[in-house]
């Protein structure tokens, strides 16, 4: 990177004719910051420039804010969507499977219990006659 040289404060372009002549690093229209502030608040051209700058900056800030809001909104939407998607892809089938397994297990248990009860003679299946044996 090139070393920044100090330059004389001397107005250029719309700020021509202004400047204190002191050496400065940062210049706007050839003016040091002090002279730029004076030029922007005390001359007609400077005031118009400042107004434009302020309006531009406000507009840019507004734009950036909107952009940020939008991206946050989108991010939230994606989060919500992915949570829902995650649920439908991974959680729901698992719940279904667990439910199936539970039902199967309950049925097996029930059948086993009935079988045992049949065997020990607590419950007798209806016989051919339609009466308890
Ligand atoms: Zn100056």
Account of the protein in words:
The chain is rod-shaped. A two-stranded antiparallel ribbon has the order 1-2. Helices cover 65% and strands 3% of the residues. The chain starts with 6 loop residues before the first strand and ends in a 13-residue tail after the last helix. It has helices spanning 33-42, 44-120; strands at residues 7-8, 23-24. The mean pLDDT is 84. It is mainly alpha-helical. The structure holds zinc ion. Residues 9, 19-20, 22, 31-32, 34-35 line the site of zinc ion (ZN).
Give keywords.
133 residues, mainly alpha, 2 domains, two-stranded antiparallel ribbon, 3% strand, binds zinc ion
Task: Give the overall shape, derived from the CA principal axes.
Answer: rod-shaped
Q: Which ligands does the model contain, each kind named once?
A: zinc ion
Distance between the termini: 105 Å
Mean pLDDT equals: 84
Unreliable stretches (pLDDT < 50, length at least 5) are none
Counted beta strands:
2
What is the chain-wise order of helices and strands? Answer: EEHH
The overall number of domains is 2
Structural class: mainly alpha
Strand order of the largest sheet: 1-2
The biggest beta sheet reads: 2 strands, antiparallel
Number of helices: 2
